[in-house]
Design brief:
The complex is a heterotrimer of chains A (398), B (527) and C (528).
Chain A lengths: L5 E2 L3 H4 L8 E4 L2 E4 L7 H9 L1 E5 L4 E6 L3 H8 L12 E7 L5 E11 L2 E6 L4 H7 L6 E4 L4 E7 L3 H8 L12 E6 L2 E6 L8 E7 L3 H12 L4 E4 L1 H10 L43 H10 L3 E8 L1 H10 L11 E9 L2 E12 L4 E9 L8 E8 L2 E10 L7 H4 L1
Parallel strand pairs in A: 1-3, 4-14
Antiparallel strand pairs in A: 2-3, 4-10, 5-8, 5-9, 6-7, 7-8, 10-13, 11-12, 12-13, 15-18, 15-20, 16-17, 16-19, 17-18, 19-20
Helix pairs in contact in A: 2-7, 5-6
Chain B lengths: L6 E4 L3 H12 L4 E4 L12 E4 L2 E3 L11 H7 L6 E2 L5 E6 L2 E5 L3 H9 L3 H24 L12 H16 L2 H10 L4 H6 L5 H11 L12 H7 L14 E2 L5 H12 L3 E3 L4 E7 L2 E7 L4 E3 L2 E4 L3 H5 L10 H8 L7 E8 L10 H5 L1 E3 L4 H12 L8 E5 L1 H4 L9 E8 L13 H18 L7 E7 L1 H8 L35 E3 L13 H13 L4
Parallel strand pairs in B: 1-2, 1-13, 2-9, 6-15, 13-19
Antiparallel strand pairs in B: 3-4, 5-8, 6-7, 10-11, 11-12, 14-17, 14-18, 15-16, 16-17
Helix pairs in contact in B: 1-10, 1-18, 3-4, 8-9, 8-14
Chain C lengths: L7 E4 L3 H12 L4 E4 L11 E5 L2 E4 L10 H6 L9 E3 L3 E4 L5 E4 L3 H11 L1 H25 L11 H16 L1 H13 L2 H6 L5 H12 L17 H8 L6 E3 L4 H13 L3 E3 L4 E7 L2 E7 L4 E3 L2 E4 L3 H6 L9 H9 L6 E8 L18 E4 L3 H12 L8 E5 L1 H4 L9 E8 L11 H16 L5 H4 E7 L1 H8 L35 E3 L13 H15 L1
Parallel strand pairs in C: 1-2, 1-13, 2-9, 6-15, 13-19
Antiparallel strand pairs in C: 3-4, 5-8, 6-7, 10-11, 11-12, 14-17, 14-18, 15-16, 16-17
Helix pairs in contact in C: 1-10, 1-18, 3-4, 4-6, 4-9, 8-13
Chain lengths: 398, 527, 528
């Protein structure tokens, strides 16, 4: 009988490590939530040593041809004509209403070849956008495995197994090299807000690559990490997640479920004055009119949290892993938004949340209330609008 | 060409000329660019053999919307309605003439069915009445319940009241007939196969579907808009010759100061910052204007002339999904004389003679197209324009035009319309005519065959569809050409669509162009 | 004359008649249901055709039963229990298959095997269908206003309908319009490239119609698959424990509990009318039962031309009923099996045997099946929808044995040459032999076979021309045109005579909506 979910090329290595059978679904794949029963150690590796994350379920498209730049420049909000070979752009892309369909990284592999990663399948939209253009679009998701090596010691570990000049590899750049002879593309990117790399390898090179890194990283405390640890790190880094913090415009059922890049804190990715791209007109209008919503960080006030629990005779209870859901955000008792993910930051020692609030309440320092369930009762904790990212590490781009 | 123009109109067919005339009258500097050597578009005649002229599309003279004629001060050409607009050839020497005068028609029908004869006058009267309601809809932008705005709502209400004014029974009948198949419609009323087949053929005109398809009830009414009472086929012809309508529109446009350039093909519509700036010509030259009104079909316009980066991928997807599906071919014959023995009186050939006396035969012809094949036994109908207009042929000689269905543009075997296939179909058509009209073949001096592939090459119509988009219910009224574009304006500032691919569609002379031009004027022509 | 007095007599104990009876009884009316057969249910019956083998003889799956009826009549308490159908598998001619499973990831993965682009399009398509289902749902619960009437209630109804349409917004309204007018094959061509996927989906658009997948007007039935989802009551399709007859029994149980009386073996000969008013009914037995109101759950032809004298009715109504299209096009083959069929594409046991099989390898296959019917014969290679109810509910067959339900299309009622015994057998053979191409051991497993042609369906259930929907669900026979313009609001020109069958809006499937709306309309009118 066939299995319901696919497994990634690293599965033979990762499966034996998942000690508590804590699996989860990610884009039709079976991946580890955590290898240990609890993600503490894995999270600590991201911030303190190096974590190895299997991110193969990301969709990967290879886009090549004379019109590759033209296609991608009309697809995404950033200016692809100014993307150098070896450069990586993080970018959302929108529908004609200027609402985000998905976000991902766009890597220029050579003059006429790009790799686009995305959370959702985008072959249909890419094909539709490429009508009338001389370009080939190939879904290489299955053939390409991806590993993220993230953490302050990531460079040191990688340097022991790869001849690449990692010191010269700047933030959001990539190079083609090898790891113990295995051809890999190394990009200085990640979803943790830390120093780190993502390694792209042909599926048949996946296991040797894993083995090489685990062996070379052992003296540095390399630790395989699952999605739970990644989730903590990405919230600290203020990075949005599709289906959690926003819905793809393709999947939204009602207008309220749509978000523009401006409304997701991604205004910096929008180049409304570049050449034509899908959603440009709407985004220009929005820029002129001003956004309706903002995506902000919330720092929940500890004293207020402690008070709510003490009233029930309990010590404060903190979420053991990041939560994904929806919690109303209020000002003077009126709802002004909603938080979509939250966690206790082990590093910052603060209870953090990512939230959508109306533009009027997006100012840094605005006092709001976040609805929480305290021992079966809905309560409101004080919180303060905090600029994103919560954690902005120098080493990330150094 | 370097003069300043306010509007460029692409195409000098009836719609292009009507649009240009409307815009010119408003004082705009208008230039019409036509790829071929003369105006007239699908109505244009060609000399297909020395001294023999005909329209390769076999288009009838269409319907000139009276509201447009009034608006533009256009003299309505005098129309002649054949006494017998439609005749069914039953067997050599045996015909069923469906005269316009319904008592005469009933008399002929009685030979086959007394019941049908009794039903006929009321039936034609009802068709006339219901088509008359469509005529009201066809002289204004298509009302759309979903578009907001009080103005639209008021117009919608007027339409609703117009529909109710038909009376309770006719209104219900209109709503019932529109989505129905013409076969069901006819089966409900008649038993005579030949009669049903003759009427049904008008309801599948230029459609890839057969008479059992839903929505053919609508097509029947569509092509009867503007038809004379009692007629169940075509709108008659202009007394003064073919191309009278387009010639009148051409003259009017020129009177209104419009410049018309023939032999000038547009290769690209130029766009800057979501607004048109002009067009590039095949010659390499450019013509600037802040507005372009295209009467090319929607796919030819959006997929062929505009750089896709300016358009929403969803919109392009919708345009690619428009069903064009050209399925009709035409054979033109130059005849030494008309056969006398065949029992086809000249009065019949002045109108249309259908050679398909069975509904199932029509359906089987359509089955082939469904699977991407040319019909083994195509439906053929013929007429002799030289009877109406002797000048189209040398003295004493004749032109016979045969419309042929189904000859689909998109063929399953992938070989396309090569020479052998064209000749094979033309031979089959000749044979069918000769069977119905013995002696026909002996009199043929020349023949010229036009397949959907030829139409595509000659007129630039996508998939050889003379309709600019099939008349299926999902592609008419506020759905034409695609939802969201039904009111002539496009997402690109200054670009308008006004061809037969827009409401009200094919066969309405200048209707789309006129309404598109009015929309353009309404939007304002400031900088 | 019986001693008891009734307020309402319901003619026909099909599911709509039973629903109407239950609602009327709930409102305190004294209701009598008269059913011709010895069991209630009409086309939703379970019968032990062969000893030990039970069949949902006609209608065999359920998805559209209105959730408000389930709630308001508390049907689960009366035995309603819908079991899930796990999957739909389309065997292909190359030995492969296309499946859709209960799990979306698994379905996506399966579809990806055939077309990654389609797997992606499916997500967007599903979302649109959900919107469309939401747009249609209020219409199913709406008494159709008469656009030709100037009565305030009709004008208000038209206004409400117009407002609902406008409220959808242009995008959804236009999408709905396309769905209502296009052919299912054309509609699916806009979304998908995988042939078997398009065929299997478009097959749902042709069920019960005399149309092919390329015939305009077949697209909107695609919605039915999504209606169940938004109702929250079931997955797309379900199977009633004990067969569809158990649904009828549950509704009958609810009606009885609410005080309705149900008599079987009580065929109504005609409705008694005096001076334009109903006075009761006369049974075939000669018995007469008096009541001021009679509701017919039978189809429009029987309701208007058999139960009453058409001369009592306006000529345009009678003409409208004459033109109403029945044209039964489907047959049913019920098999008692000695064991499980083995499908070449998915050998051995597995969850697929608890789901449906669709014999729809390509749109062209379906279209050719239709062509056979157009010219007067049953399809030599028909479209078939197959379930093995005993795999879902083991009580349907003796242990280790099985029942198989095969819905067969096309089988035209008006077959050239008529439905002789030989023709019926030939149809059964065509079904079994076509299926044997995909499950070669099937013929050897068949213990008993029941073949029901449209003529048999008509003879047994009374449904005119064997049309399973009491009249085709075509655009010109829907909403205020169903069954006849001006008489779409469950009333008839005879005072006290009402209609509540599937031949009225919204009709079709085991939905019950017609019965409920008719009951409410009747109660509302008598309140006024």
């Amino acid at each position: 009988m066939t299995l319901v979910l696919k497994t990634t090329p690293f599965h033979p290595r990762t499966a034996p490590l998942v000690r508590a059978q804590t699996w989860r679904r990610w884009a039709g794949y079976q991946v580890a939530s955590a290898y240990d029963p609890h993600p503490d150690r894995e999270y600590a590796a991201i911030r303190n040593a190096a974590a190895l994350l299997d991110v193969s379920p990301l969709r990967k498209y290879r886009i090549a041809g004379p019109d590759a730049v033209r296609l991608l420049d009309r697809l995404v909000t950033r200016d692809v004509t100014r993307c150098a070979v070896g450069q990586v752009l993080y970018t959302p892309w929108c529908d004609a209403r200027g609402k985000v369909l998905d976000d991902g990284t766009l890597s220029r592999l050579d003059e006429r070849t790009f790799r686009l990663t995305s959370a959702e399948p985008n072959l249909r939209w890419l094909t539709m956008s490429a009508a009338g253009m001389d370009v080939t679009i190939e879904d290489v998701s299955e053939h390409t495995a991806a590993l993220a090596l993230q953490g302050p010691l990531a460079r040191a570990i990688l340097a022991t197994v790869s001849p690449a000049d990692l010191g010269a590899l700047r933030y959001f750049r990539l190079l083609h090299s090898t790891v113990r002879g295995i051809p890999v593309t190394i990009s200085r990117t990640g979803y943790t807000g830390d120093l780190g790399y993502e390694l792209w390898v042909d599926a048949d090179g996946a296991l040797p690559l894993w083995d090489a890194l685990v062996e070379a990283g052992a003296p540095y405390g390399i630790t395989p990490a699952g999605i739970w640890a990644l989730d903590l790190a990405r919230i600290e880094a203020g990075l949005v997640m599709i289906d959690v913090d926003y819905f793809s415009a393709h999947h939204a059922l009602i207008p309220d479920q749509l978000s523009s890049p401006f409304e997701l804190g991604l205004g910096w990715t929008v180049s409304p004055d570049k050449g034509p791209f899908t959603g440009r007109r709407a985004l220009r209008d929005e820029r002129a009119r001003g956004r309706m919503w903002a995506f902000v960080g919330l720092g929940i006030d500890w004293d207020s949290l402690e008070r709510l629990y003490r009233q029930r005779g309990l010590p404060p209870q903190l979420p053991p892993i990041a939560w994904r859901g929806s919690a109303p955000v209020l000002v003077n008792g009126r709802q002004v938004g909603y938080a979509t993910s939250g966690c206790w930051s082990p590093l910052l020692k603060r209870y953090l949340a990512l939230a959508h609030v109306t533009a009027a309440h997006a100012e840094r320092g605005t006092g709001v209330e976040l609805e929480l369930t305290v021992e079966h009762r809905r309560q409101r904790a004080d919180a303060v609008v905090t600029p994103l990212p919560f954690l902005d590490l120098e080493r990330k781009r150094a | 060409m370097n003069d300043r123009h306010d509007v460029i109109v692409i195409g000098a067919g009836a719609n292009g000329l009507a649009a240009a005339a409307t815009l010119g009258r408003a004082g705009l500097a208008v230039i019409v660019l036509e790829q071929s050597g003369a105006v007239g578009g699908l109505q244009r005649t060609v000399e297909f053999a020395p001294g023999f002229h005909a329209t390769p599309t076999a288009a009838d003279d269409g319907w000139l919307p009276p509201a447009m004629a009034r608006d533009l001060g256009l003299g309505v050409p005098v129309r002649t309605i054949p006494d017998i607009p439609l005749t069914v050839a039953l067997a050599p020497g045996d015909v069923l003439p469906l005269a316009r005068e319904s008592r005469a028609a009933a008399e002929a029908i009685r030979r086959h069915s007394a019941r049908d004869a009794a039903t006929w006058p009321a039936f034609t009267a009802q068709l006339h009445k219901l088509a008359g309601f469509l005529a009201v809809l066809y002289q204004r932008p298509a009302p759309d319940i979903a578009t907001t705005g009080l103005r639209d709502l008021a117009s919608l209400l007027r339409v609703a009241l117009g529909l109710r004014a038909l009376g309770r029974a006719d209104m219900a009948e209109f709503l019932r007939i529109v989505p129905m198949s013409v076969r069901e419609l006819l089966d409900d009323r008649f038993e005579c196969e030949a009669l049903k087949a003759a009427v049904a053929a008008g309801a599948v005109r230029d459609l890839r579907q057969g008479p059992r398809s839903g929505g053919t009830g609508f097509v029947l009414l569509h092509y009867l808009v503007g038809a004379a009472p009692g007629s169940v086929r075509d709108r008659g012809y202009c007394r003064d010759g073919p191309e009278t309508c387009v010639a009148a529109l051409d003259a009017l446009a020129r009177r209104n100061g419009v410049t018309i350039r023939t032999d000038t093909a547009v290769s690209r519509i130029l766009v800057r910052d979501d607004a048109v700036t002009g067009v590039a010509l095949a010659s390499g030259a450019e013509v600037s204007a802040p507005r372009v009104l295209s009467t090319a079909d929607p796919a030819a316009t959006f997929l062929g002339l505009v750089d896709p980066v300016w358009l929403d991928p969803e919109l392009l997807h919708a345009v690619r999904n428009i069903k064009f599906r050209g399925a009709a071919a035409v054979v033109l014959y130059a005849l030494d004389s008309l056969p006398q023995r065949g029992g086809l009186p000249a009065a019949s050939l002045a109108g249309v003679v259908t050679l398909t006396p069975q509904l199932d035969a029509l359906e089987r012809a359509a089955d082939a197209a469904k699977y991407g094949n040319v019909s083994e036994h195509p439906h053929v109908e013929i007429s002799a324009p030289s009877i109406r207009w002797p000048a189209v042929a040398p003295p004493g000689k004749h032109v016979v035009v045969a419309r042929v269905q189904y000859a689909p543009h998109c063929l399953k075997d992938g070989n396309g319309w090569d020479g052998a296939r064209r000749e094979a179909l033309a031979d089959r058509v000749s044979h069918l005519i000769d069977t119905a009209v013995p002696g026909f073949l002996d009199r043929v001096l020349h023949r010229a065959m036009f397949t959907p592939a030829d139409f595509e090459a000659r007129y630039g119509v996508t998939e050889g569809a003379l309709t600019h988009g099939e008349l299926t219910l999902d592609q008419v009224l506020f759905m034409r050409p695609i939802p969201g574009l039904a009111h002539y304006a496009t997402p690109l500032t200054g670009l308008y669509l006004g061809g037969a691919g827009t409401h009200p569609g094919p066969g309405v002379m200048g209707g789309g162009g006129w309404l598109a031009a009015r929309r353009l004027l309404q939007d304002g022509t400031g900088p | 004359m019986t001693a008891r007095r009734y307020d309402v007599i319901v003619v026909g104990g099909g599911h709509n008649g039973l629903v109407a009876a239950a609602y009327l009884a709930r409102a305190g009316r004294r209701v009598l249901v008269l059913e011709r057969r010895s069991m209630v249910g009409g086309a939703a019956v379970t019968e032990e055709i062969f000893p030990g083998f039970k069949f949902s003889v006609f209608s065999y799956v359920v998805s559209l039963l209105r959730p408000e009826i389930i709630r308001e009549l508390d049907l689960p308490r009366h035995g309603l229990q819908i079991l899930p159908l796990e999957s739909t598998v389309t065997p292909l001619d190359n030995g492969d298959y296309l499946a859709s499973w209960a799990d979306p990831d698994e379905t996506r993965r399966e579809l990806c095997r055939h077309s990654p682009r389609d797997a992606e399009a499916m997500a967007v398509f599903g979302r649109l269908m959900q919107h469309m289902a939401m747009a249609v749902k209020p219409i199913l619960g709406m008494v159709p206003p008469d656009p030709g009437s100037l009565a305030p209630s009709d004008l208000a109804g038209l206004l409400r309908f117009g407002r609902h349409m406008r409220g959808l917004g242009p995008d959804r309204f236009h999408a709905l319009f396309k769905l209502m007018t296009m052919s299912s094959a054309d509609y699916l061509d806009e979304w998908f490239e995988c042939g078997p996927l398009k065929a299997t989906k478009s097959a749902s658009g042709i069920i019960g119609t005399f149309l092919g997948p390329r015939s305009p007007g077949t697209a909107y039935v695609l919605l039915h698959h999504y209606m169940g989802e938004i109702d929250g009551a079931f997955r797309a399709w379900g199977f009633q424990k004990g067969g569809t007859g158990a649904i009828s029994d549950a509704i009958a149980g609810a009606a009885r509990a609410l005080g309705a009386e149900i008599r079987t073996d009580a065929a109504v000969e005609r409705v008694l009318v005096r001076s334009g008013r109903v006075t009761g009914v006369a049974l075939v037995s000669g018995e007469e039962v008096a009541a001021p109101v009679v509701i017919s759950g039978l189809d429009p032809r029987l309701t208007f031309t058999q139960l009453v004298d058409p001369d009592e009715l306006p000529a345009d109504l009678v003409e409208g009923v004459r033109r109403f299209k029945f044209r039964g096009s489907s047959a049913k083959v019920n098999l008692a099996l000695a064991g499980l069929p083995e499908f070449t594409c998915l050998p051995g046991p597995g969850p697929h045997l608890r789901g449906a099989f669709s014999i729809s390898p390509s749109v062209e296959y379906l279209e050719r099946a239709y062509d056979d019917a157009k010219y007067g014969d049953f399809s030599r290679q028909p479209y078939m929808d197959i379930v093995i109810p005993s795999m879902i509910d083991p009580g349907m067959a003796p242990p280790g044995r099985h029942v198989m339900s095969i819905f067969v299309q096309y089988a035209p009622y008006a077959r050239t040459g008529g439905w002789t015994d030989a023709a019926r057998d030939a149809l059964g053979d065509a079904a079994v032999q076509t299926l044997a191409r995909y499950a070669p051991n099937l013929p050897s497993l068949v213990l008993h076979r029941q073949v029901l042609t449209p003529l048999d369906i008509e003879r047994i259930t009374g449904l005119s021309e064997g049309n399973i929907f009491q009249g085709e669900l075509a655009l010109h026979q829907l909403f205020f045109l169903r069954p006849v313009p001006a008489w779409a609001k469950y009333r008839t020109p005879i005072e006290g005579y009402w209609q509540c069958g599937a031949g009225t809006h919204p009709g079709g499937g085991i939905m019950g909506a017609s019965g409920r709306l008719a009951a409410y309309e009747l109660l509302g009118s008598s309140a006024r």
